[in-house]
Amino acid sequence: MSEIKEIHFTICPVANTSYIAHKKGWIREALEYLDVKPLQLQDLSKELWQTHFDYKNPLLFREGGNAPPIYAKADGQDLILLGVTLVEHVQYIIVRADSRIGTIEQLAGKKAGIPSRPDAIIDFQRVSSQQAFDLALSARGVNPSRVEYADITAEGNFVGGFKSLKEPGSPPEERRHVPAPEVDALDEGRVDAVYVRGGRAVQLLASGKYRVIFDLAAAPDVLSPINNEYPNVLTVHRNVAEKAPEVVVAYIKQLLRAAEWAAENYAETVELLAEQTYTTPGEFVLSHKRGYTARLAPELSEHSLRILEGRKEALLRHGYLKGDFDVIKWADDSFLRQARKELQA
Fold this sequence. Notes:
The chain is α/β, with parallel strands linked by helices. The chain contains 15 helices and ten strands.
């Protein structure tokens, strides 16, 4: 039996196989067979909730946004990159419907609204917005320095609302009321454009109050539409990997199993992932690239790792990291290979 008797797992509200495997009960079944108790981080004491972001938890599995694990790795936390999934979803630069701005080039001399939470361990929304504007402007030959990046400050550090990650299936209309200070600033005319993504982007555009001036995901061969959810990453603390490698393999097997199930059960997969991402099924379909549910399996291809490297470089360039590291060396494909081998057997 395993040397470790319990693990703590946490799942971001971004579409991934961890959520499917958890909801199906497969993670619990597989680990309890090894006499290991899987505990969702949100069920534990509040003192542990911040480890969703800083990884100071020797029992942690996490699948979700990439900024926290990149930050934690650069901060010296000992976590292993197990897999990457390219979560293909809509990403836009938008303006108000009554704005005279029609192209990204016309933002020169204008204000881009950047959400900012100074108290956050890692302000992943801020860097995603900064990177989105950098990419969009550069793609059209506009130096980002010609646009004023205006911080729209909000209270909170993301940990306070962490409990909602446990049961993300709240009604989508409740999710619409989650504060988005940069959108409020756009409504009030304090900024000229903002970056939006995923289901929130679909919801905002459906209101008729906004227009898209740049589609970041329209030309992936020209620019890589990177944000906190693209790519989605699976990680584990090295303590678990070294003391109980069979637990890591068992965990990954359930994610691969969930990916196979998702590829064959489209309607139910959309229902589950819409629940996870606080959207309606229709909004989820509109916000994600066609065929996405057939490409949910975590992997460690050179292509995916290069995209993750680009995300790390953006975090480093904008001053979010305490140090640098090699993404290729960070990845350990031995657990993924063993999981695939056992499934095939």
